[in-house]
């Protein structure tokens, strides 16, 4: 579903991704781990064309993302992305935040979009908040609305960029529970996270990045139970302590 070959990305003289090779299969949950600044979020942003790589190839299904004639907005319709910050429109009700893109981009009627929006709010446990404004929501509720908003476009792939990093500890679980449900339902997911318990439980494959280099990948049992790379061992000894 996603193929990345020899991908490199720099900001000025700082190279943040170095010759990344990666494949993600349909219905697979791939979790990216590593220290802050290792290139995880940049890789995710390159996959959604929010950043442009200087070198390499990215294929989303059969579409070459970096080709000059690729329709990026159309391709983005197939990829939902959830960020660290919720980015909800504060002047719009929850349901309107969710229905805006399907109406304007997908061309759905307001009735179709609202029906889908309510279905997704039930899915994330927030049906009663449909007519609330974002300011009245907790951080965990806001992030669940952001997930519902991304799902409203019916994407084939979901990208999560540290979706729980801005949350209070007691709110992390409610967001991870929604993500676990998506994984069980077969959604293709790439997740950047520092939640090692989630990575171990839900990830089909764990990828460890360090200083822009893909150092190690494998199943959760392989990476967490018997890491081969010394840098991976050092990282895990700190985050799992």
From TrEMBL:
Cross-referenced PROSITE patterns, in alphabetical order?
ABC_TRANSPORTER_1, ABC_TRANSPORTER_2
Question: Which superkingdom is the protein from?
Answer: Bacteria
Q: What is this protein called?
A: Amino acid ABC transporter ATP-binding protein
| Family matches, as Pfam families | ABC_tran
Q: Which CDD domains match?
A: ABC_HisP_GlnQ (cd03262)
Organism the protein comes from: Cohnella pontilimi
Domain named ABC transporter: residues: 2-236
Topology versus the membrane, per the UniProt entry? Peripheral membrane protein
> A single Gene Ontology molecular function, please?
ABC-type amino acid transporter activity
Q: Which family does it belong to?
A: Belongs to the ABC transporter superfamily.
Predominant location: membrane
Localization, UniProt: Cell membrane
Keyword vocabulary terms for this entry: Amino-acid transport, ATP-binding, Cell membrane, Membrane, Nucleotide-binding, Transport
Q: Which GO terms describe its cellular component?
A: plasma membrane
Keyword Nucleotidyltransferase listed? The answer is: no
């Amino acid at each position: 579903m996603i193929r990345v070959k020899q991908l490199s990305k720099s900001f000025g003289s700082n190279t943040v991704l170095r010759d990344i090779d990666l494949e993600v299969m349909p219905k697979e949950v791939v979790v990216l781990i590593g220290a802050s600044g290792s290139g995880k979020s940049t890789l995710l942003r390159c996959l959604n064309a929010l950043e442009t790589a200087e070198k390499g190839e990215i294929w989303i299904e059969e579409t070459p993302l970096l080709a000059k004639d690729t329709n990026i907005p159309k391709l983005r319709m197939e990829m939902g992305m959830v960020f660290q910050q919720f980015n909800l429109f504060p002047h719009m009700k929850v349901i309107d935040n969710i229905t805006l893109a399907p109406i304007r981009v997908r061309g759905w009627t307001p009735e179709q979009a609202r029906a889908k929006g309510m279905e997704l709010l039930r899915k994330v446990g927030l049906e009663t908040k449909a007519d609330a404004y974002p300011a009245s929501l907790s951080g965990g509720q806001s992030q669940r609305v952001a997930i519902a908003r991304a799902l409203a476009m019916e994407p084939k792939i979901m990208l999560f960029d540290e979706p729980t990093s801005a949350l209070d500890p007691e709110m992390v679980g409610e967001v991870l529970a929604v993500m676990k449900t998506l994984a069980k339902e077969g959604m293709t997911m790439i997740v950047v996270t520092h939640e090692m318990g989630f990575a171990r439980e839900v990830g089909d494959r764990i990828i460890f990045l360090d200083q822009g280099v893909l150092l190690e990948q494998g199943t959760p049992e392989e990476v967490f139970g018997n890491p081969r790379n010394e840098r991976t061992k050092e990282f895990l000894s700190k985050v799992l302590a």
